[in-house]
Amino acid sequence: MPLIGQLALALALIIAFYSIVANVIGARRGIPTLIVSARHAVWAVCAMVTVAMGALWTSLLQSDFSLEYVSSYTSFTLPTFYKVTALWGGQQGSLLLWTWLLTVFTAIVAFQNRRRNPEIAPYALAVLAGVAIFFLAMLNFVTRPFDMLSAIPAEGQDLNPLLQNYWMAIHPPSLYTGYVSASVPFAFGAAALITGRLDDSWIRSTRRWAIFSWFFLTLGNLFGARWAYEVLGWGGYWAWDPVENAAFMPWLVMTAYLHSIMIQERKDMLKVWNLALIGMAFGLTLFGTFLTRSGVISSVHSFTASGLGPYFLTFLLVVCVLYSGLLIARVKSLRTPAEFESYLSREAAFLFNNLVLVGIAFAVFWGTLFPVLSEAVRGVKITVGPPFFDKVNAPLALALIFLMGVGPLIAWRRSSLDNLRRTFTAPAILGIVAGLCAFLAGLHQWYVLSALSLAAFVLGTVVAEFRRGVSARRHMVSESAPKAVVNLIAKNNRRYGGYVIHVGVILAFVGIVASSFFRVEVKKSVKEGGSFYIGPYELVYLGLTTRETPHLESAIARVEVFRAGKPIAVMAPAKLFYKRPQQPATEVAIRSTPASDLYLVLAGIDDNTGMVTFQVFLTPLVFWLWAGGLIMALGTVIVMWPNVRERAAIGAAVRAPAALEFDAQTVPGGE
Amino acid sequence: MKPGKPLTLVAALLAISLGVAAVSLAASIAAKTSVQDVSEGLTCQCGCGLTVANCNHPQCEFAVPVRTRIEGMIANGMSRPQIIAWFRTQYGEKVLSAPTTEGFNLVAWIMPFAALIAGGLAIFFAFGSWRSKAAVAPVAVGAFDPELKRRLEQELRERI
Q1: Closest residue in chain A to residue B88, using alpha carbons only
Q2: For residue range B11-48, what is the model confidence (pLDDT) as tens digits?
Q3: Which of A365-369, A554-558, A644-648, B114-118 has the least mean pLDDT?
């Protein structure tokens, strides 16, 4: 198996080189057979990397400890599920997964564009193959997943206990899918710059890819936060750790890009800006991997710090220089007569939304790198932690939420005062009333009041917009209100899916604000039968049981929870002791309700006194962070849902000029 | 309701909200020093990468005694800045969870907002140049074209 895997990776590298050469020469000289051959090469690369993936997975499942990777990240006793997920538990496997996703997406792009975009698709495929070559070179020469050990150990070193969690099973693949799929719009943007076809066809062709990337970046961040919440045992979910920041920045820039391309599609403006944004998003995905792999900044998530940093940094710099050079060379052709009438317009709101999103991304980038800068300039190592990011980003988040309410409802070109009054009076009153109610309910922090008011304002705008749409439908075609809602979303899925995403963002925002400001913590040591209070809950410690498997030993505490004297739940936080590597871990118990999460950690066990220490957090509304995230995902699915009218528009935009079109059936070996 | 009334109402409610916010801000500034508040200003040195308030090692050799020490310092009447300054003299700048607001560290705080202002100015100037170029064509007011009306209605039926 290892030999097959290594051979497959070597072949993939050679074929990827060929695909670039064939695509570029085929496109430049107009040789359809060469382009078809290049497309087949792309599929062959995908097949080879799939073989390598299969080989590594087989070795992991067979516990083939002759392979260094398998012996480093698994053991005989590791549950099968984690043997599967160990593929991305280490560096080589992670890079292999990344490369596999990239080649699969490239293969799909080749298939989608076999009769579309004949001018730019070959160059886009060449760019994607160029990225794949970098990763394949890493896997072939720098960090090989199929390296063998000279002496085969009797047992493996096992997977890091922190990674033995189901969220870690889905968090890295989701995030990688988001990272890698951002390569597709980037490659088409680069291809548009190379070929000079600078209309919006590259955007229309890859808009769905950009949304797909955003969808998985959202899920990746959400799953990562959930993993931190359940595994790290500190009651929080986001620590502004460099690796978390690295995942967050591409999400911010992709969000800006998805809003900004609407202006280009609608008004043919911001061409340079959109190309810059997608370049930034792609660069940040590489930067994220550089941070995770280089160890240049200490991080709680750097499970596999290595010497890969310089390679990634070099590649990142090469990409930045080439892409910026292309962009600068084409600036004149990208300039179009822009049309702007008023600050009270949707294009202005979207531009400010872009400013704030990119501003937050920059603040995060700056804060993440500042320790390195400080050490270089002053020779003093400093920490840039949560207080910095919270203080800098908190006002920007409020501005963003405000714009989220204004942007979708304000008119294109120019809004009259009357129009603004009609659209925003009711939501504004709702926001202000919500803030006043919160104040009267005893919430006195200005940030909380502002956040709640703005959240209510945005929800008000969305509800008003749905109401307007439904009443228009019922006026035009008489149907029931629920049916009108469904048809409204189905016929305008892009617009109303976007509103659903906004609702998700608002719910998540409320969850973040409430959980950050009002979390309560209690730490108590009790004996069996002892009890203590947190908020409205009484917790009674019932006793400790132990359990042993070949893999780990666990001590499980049973705690009965009472509210107003009535038993409502029995919770079971545990302390785990992994046998290989010998490492303790905590398993928290969480009782989640829409109002609050009761989060119980078994912090310590004193065998001499029989005392057990619990750390308990009561976190209000954190449920809505996860629910909001899932609603964002649902909204994205609605946006991505195939729409006949949009397909027709894409078809019209990317249809090839007759002279350049070639029929694959006339090509030997063509489809 | 008269046309001007909603705006007046919104303005009044906004003024009340701002007043409320100002009062609550003053209240939050005057709030007492707490262990949580101080320990969020310090970075744990055990390698967890979190603040002393959030260190996830229940028996942490750094965070646990530091929290106890902070409790004692608060009981002795020390303020948050005094406590943070004391820890800084003991462990150096790396123990702070955010850059100070002095010397080169000021750059950390200023730069994000400077970039934002620069971006805002860029948008402002871009808008200015776009606005001056845009020729505002007078809108012809006349009889509504029946064909246009038919197409508009058809489009509405399709889209709504």
Answers
A1: A382
A2: 565 555 555 555 544 444 444 568 888 998 999 988 77
A3: A644-648
* The token pair that represents A126 in the structure block: 């060449």
* Residue pointed to by tokens 């919160």: A438
Query: Domain containing B32 — which CATH number?
Result: 1.10.8
Which residues of chain B does A603 touch, with a Cβ-Cβ cutoff of 8 Å?
Answer: 58-59
> Is A388 close to B97, i.e. CB distance below 8 A?
yes
Whether the Cβ atoms of residue A84 and residue A57 lie closer than 8 Å to each other: yes
Distance, in angstroms, between B147 CA and closest chain A CA? 19
Q: Within a domain: residue B92?
A: yes
Which residues form the domain of B59? 28-119
DSSP conformation letters of B90-118: HH-GGGBSS--SSTTHHHHHHHHHHHHHH
Domain annotation covers residue B19: no
Helices (H), A90-237: 91-112, 121-137, 166-181, 183-195, 201-231
C-alpha A500/C-alpha A628 separation (Å) is 10
Closest by Cβ to A383, choosing from B13, B28, B94 = B94
Whether B87 maps to a domain, the answer reads yes
The total number of residues shown for chain B amounts to 160
Contacts 24+ apart (CB under 8 A), A656-664: A656/A115, A656/A116, A656/A117, A656/A118, A656/A119, A660/A30, A660/A118, A660/A119, A661/A115, A661/A118, A662/A32, A662/A35, A662/A118, A664/A32, A664/A36, A664/A114, A664/A115
**How far does the CA of residue A570 sit from the closest CA of chain B (Å)?**
22
Q: Give chain A positions within 8 Å (CB) of B62.
A: none
| A613 pLDDT higher than 60 | yes
- Whether the pLDDT of residue A25 is over 60: the answer is yes
Is the pLDDT at A662 greater than 50? The verdict is no
**Within an 8 Å CB–CB cutoff, is residue B12 touching chain A?**
no
Q: Which B-chain residues 73-132 have CB contacts (< 8 A) with chain A?
A: 92-99, 104-105, 108-109, 111-113, 115-116, 119-120, 123, 126-127, 130-131
Q: Is the peptide bond before A581 cis (omega within 30 degrees of 0)?
A: yes
Residue A167: its pLDDT value, please?
85
Classify the phi-psi angles of A543: left when phi > 0, otherwise alpha if psi is within -120 to 50, otherwise beta: left
**How is residue A597 written in tokens?**
């999460």
Say how many domains are in chain B: 1
**Does the residue B51 lie in any domain?**
yes
Q: Strand pairing partners for A554?
A: A547, A576
Q: Is A446 within 8 Å of B109 when comparing Cβ atoms? A: no
* Alpha-carbon distance B69 to nearest alpha carbon in chain A (angstroms): 16
Contact A449 B97 (CB under 8 A): no
Q: Give the chain B residue whose CA is nearest to the CA of A371.
A: B99
Best mutation target, B50, B62, B117, B136, to test chain A (most A CBs within 10 A): B50
Q: Coil, helix or strand for A504?
A: helix
Instruction: Specify the length of chain A in residues.
Output: 671
- Largest alpha-carbon pair distance within chain A? 87
Q: What is the pLDDT of residues B86-112, one digit of tens each?
A: 999 999 898 999 999 889 999 999 999
The whole-angstrom separation of Cα B132 and Cα B125 is: 11
